[in-house]
Every structure is written in C-alpha cells, then in structure tokens.
TrEMBL record:
<dbReference type="InterPro" id="IPR055642">
    <property type="entry name" value="DUF7218"/>
</dbReference>
<dbReference type="Pfam" id="PF23855">
    <property type="entry name" value="DUF7218"/>
</dbReference>
<feature type="compositionally biased region" description="Basic and acidic residues">
    <location>
        <begin position="43"/>
        <end position="72"/>
    </location>
</feature>
<protein>
    <submittedName>
        <fullName>Rho termination factor-like protein</fullName>
    </submittedName>
</protein>
<feature type="region of interest" description="Disordered">
    <location>
        <begin position="1"/>
        <end position="82"/>
    </location>
</feature>
<dbReference type="GO" id="GO:0006353">
    <property type="term" value="P:DNA-templated transcription termination"/>
</dbReference>
<dbReference type="InterPro" id="IPR011112">
    <property type="entry name" value="Rho-like_N"/>
</dbReference>
<feature type="domain" description="Rho termination factor-like N-terminal">
    <location>
        <begin position="51"/>
        <end position="79"/>
    </location>
</feature>
<dbReference type="InterPro" id="IPR036269">
    <property type="entry name" value="Rho_N_sf"/>
</dbReference>
<dbReference type="Pfam" id="PF07498">
    <property type="entry name" value="Rho_N"/>
</dbReference>
C-alpha cells in the first residue's frame, strides 16, 4: 500500500518508486508532481527546437530555480539534468 505523503506530493506511488530508484526527495517530488510525467509518446519537440520562452515555461513547471537569468543553452542543460 502506498503511503500518503501529504498535499505537497501529487502522485504518491510515483514518488515512492522514484525514491526507491535512488532519486533525492526534491527530484522525486518534482517529477511526481509534473502532470503526465509517466506518459510516453515521443511527440515532444527536442529542447533545441523550442523557443527560450517555451523552455522557461517548462523549467517553471518542473521547479528549476534561477531560470529567469538562464540563457537558452543553460535552460536546456538544467532541464536535462533535473
């Protein structure tokens, strides 16, 4: 049975699975709170094909700090490493 981690975690099952894989609590929470984080489809554009504003919005969605001062390459790197 999945433990309830409170209102700050939207998908408790995914959160626990990510913790069990060795992710930090912060990264597991960020991923488990992202809508459609577990869905696959391969239809999203590559980061390089997106505008800086689109990358900024994605960074905001996943909770990357300092995003407002990042360049497009920095946003891409932060998104790939989050």
């Amino acid at each position: 049975m999945t433990k309830n981690h409170g209102s700050s975690i939207k998908n408790d099952e995914k959160y626990e699975a990510l913790l069990n894989e060795g992710m930090s609590k912060t990264k597991a929470a960020r991923i488990s709170n992202t809508p459609n984080s577990g869905k696959k489809g391969g239809k999203a554009k590559e980061y390089e094909e997106r505008s800086k504003q689109q990358l900024y919005e994605k960074a905001k969605e996943v909770g990357i700090e300092g995003r407002s001062k990042m360049s497009k390459p920095e946003l891409i790197s932060a998104l790939r490493n989050s």
